[in-house]
């Protein structure tokens, strides 16, 4: 009984992954048609992950300090602090967070415009926080594959918000 259950789940998982990978290639072709990659200086997954690790450590320490003064749930403080940190800091610091700045990468709007609060709310809150959590790891996995295999190195949240991550300094 357990063997059949595990085998059935593995088959379903394999089916979903194969559909996801074929969908990724289709999505990749659709979204990268009109983009001039040579001018973008796109960033690989390694640099993004390194910046995320630095940001996460900073967020943990910041939330711990806030929790010391405001005795509330540490997890709630961490989530709220992370959302504001990832939305407001790039808005006012040319697309940088502390981790991105340390690694030398930043978020840029696809059309070269200044990042706006609605763009960052869509990118960081609606897609990265809400949508990624809703799909329990499948969308972040697809994003990692897109960043690793795509010409323009854009993740799902970049496609939706019309942004990309670059190593170019602001002008």
TrEMBL record:
<feature type="transmembrane region" description="Helical">
    <location>
        <begin position="12"/>
        <end position="28"/>
    </location>
</feature>
<dbReference type="InterPro" id="IPR051791">
    <property type="entry name" value="Pra-immunoreactive"/>
</dbReference>
<dbReference type="Pfam" id="PF06271">
    <property type="entry name" value="RDD"/>
</dbReference>
<keyword id="KW-0812">Transmembrane</keyword>
<dbReference type="GO" id="GO:0005886">
    <property type="term" value="C:plasma membrane"/>
</dbReference>
<protein>
    <submittedName>
        <fullName>RDD family protein</fullName>
    </submittedName>
</protein>
<feature type="domain" description="RDD">
    <location>
        <begin position="44"/>
        <end position="161"/>
    </location>
</feature>
<feature type="transmembrane region" description="Helical">
    <location>
        <begin position="73"/>
        <end position="93"/>
    </location>
</feature>
<feature type="transmembrane region" description="Helical">
    <location>
        <begin position="130"/>
        <end position="149"/>
    </location>
</feature>
<keyword id="KW-0472">Membrane</keyword>
<dbReference type="InterPro" id="IPR010432">
    <property type="entry name" value="RDD"/>
</dbReference>
<feature type="transmembrane region" description="Helical">
    <location>
        <begin position="48"/>
        <end position="66"/>
    </location>
</feature>
<keyword id="KW-1133">Transmembrane helix</keyword>
<keyword id="KW-1003">Cell membrane</keyword>
């Amino acid at each position: 009984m357990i063997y059949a259950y595990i085998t059935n789940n593995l088959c379903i998982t394999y089916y979903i992954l194969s559909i996801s990978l074929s969908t990724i290639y289709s999505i990749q072709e659709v979204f990268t048609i009109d983009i001039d990659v040579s001018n973008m200086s796109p960033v690989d997954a390694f640099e993004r992950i390194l910046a995320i690790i630095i940001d996460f450590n900073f967020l943990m320490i910041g939330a711990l300090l806030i929790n010391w003064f405001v005795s509330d749930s540490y997890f709630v403080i961490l989530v709220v602090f992370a959302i504001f940190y990832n939305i407001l800091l790039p808005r006012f610091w040319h697309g940088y967070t502390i981790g991105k700045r340390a690694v030398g990468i930043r978020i840029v709007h696809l059309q070269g415009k200044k990042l706006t609060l609605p763009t960052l709310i869509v990118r960081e809150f609606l897609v990265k926080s809400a949508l990624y959590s809703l799909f329990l790891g499948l969308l972040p996995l697809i994003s990692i594959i897109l960043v690793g295999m795509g010409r323009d190195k854009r993740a799902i949240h970049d496609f939706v918000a019309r942004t990309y991550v670059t190593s170019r300094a602001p002008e």
